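Holo prediction. Input below; ligand is adenosine-5'-triphosphate.
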Amino acid sequence: MTDTAPPDQPAIRCRDVWQVFGTGAAKCLPDALDRAGGDVRQAAQILRDDGLVPAVQNVSFDVKRGELFVIMGLSGSGKSTILRCISRLIDVTAGQIEIDGEDILTASKARMTQLRRRKLGMVFQHFGLFPHMSVLQNVAFPLKMQRQGRAERLRRAQEVIDLVGLKGREGAYPRQLSGGQRQRVGIARSLAVNPDVWFLDEPFSALDPLIRRQLQDEFIDIQARLRKSIVFITHDIAEALKIADRIAIMRDGQIVQIGTPSQIVLEPADDYVRDFTRDVAKGRHARLSSVLRPVDPDAPPAPDDPGLTVDMTLDEALNACMLLYQPVPVRGRDGQIVGMIDPADLANALQVDP
Ligand SMILES: Nc1ncnc2c1ncn2[C@@H]1O[C@H](COP(=O)(O)OP(=O)(O)OP(=O)(O)O)[C@@H](O)[C@H]1O
Ligand SMILES: [Mg+2]
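Structure of the complex:
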């Protein structure tokens, strides 16, 4: 992030991005779009019929500064491909991608190397650690690439090793670590350069559920302190709902919905999204802010005040006002009343889909 950037400029901006695999894709795409009269679905089918793979189709989204943006979808829906486009590990077939307002699709190779070393962090599920290097050496390695002095890079490496909870294991080699610990080394290594924009592709998916939950909690803590702009990929809806500020749901190369965890759970855009969230306990994930009503001046909240706040989950709120029958006030973080809620609305919002 530069100090001169406008405050509302997104960290990442993707517009109409296509990634079509196969020979002659760049030429076939405009033809297919033409023949389909601009219809994305139809164009994708034409490309498929021609033996090409339209892995990402006309995808647009913004990631705000300091936002944790999760991309979620079934295997093969194009999640990794879009991430590889944004980090320009592959060249897009069509579309625009900006990072902090900079068009990265026209950036030179040298500029991309510079961005990867200083501004972008990446963690991949199978991103190997160097087996012949200790934890400390692995984490300090990107700083060496930045030509930082030895003392400085070891100090910084130690700092991020502490941050991910590996203090005491600096001298260990990857083979002496568990899967979860190795994943932490990967995270520490990508954090060492203090990236502004952080890409993580299913970083926890190889781990067993308990360790995975623990790492998710730590990840939320780290993000609360560092406020990076993050694109995090997962195919686990529970993980997405737990960590995301906003979630994009991908299906067959397209984004079918972008929304907050509450919106995804309470207002799924279609049956595909609804299927993901069907087994999710809505009350645990949706927040009061999503069902809040403005204060009605003719029927202000009753005198009962169970102390509801916008950040509460629906379950917490229902617990607090289970025995009340009249609308009650809801307060913002500053204690001011920002709306009201009828306990009956809460019960309705928590109804399970038939
Ligand atoms: N280099 C490539 N050449 C041809 N097809 C590819 C290539 N890379 C990916 N694909 C195809 O593009 C589609 C999207 O793949 P992608 O790896 O983005 O899926 P994903 O959503 O990350 O899945 P997963 O959850 O399994 O990681 C798949 O159909 C895949 O087979
Ligand atoms: Mg993938």
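DSSP finds 14 helices and 13 strands in the chain. That is the main takeaway for now.
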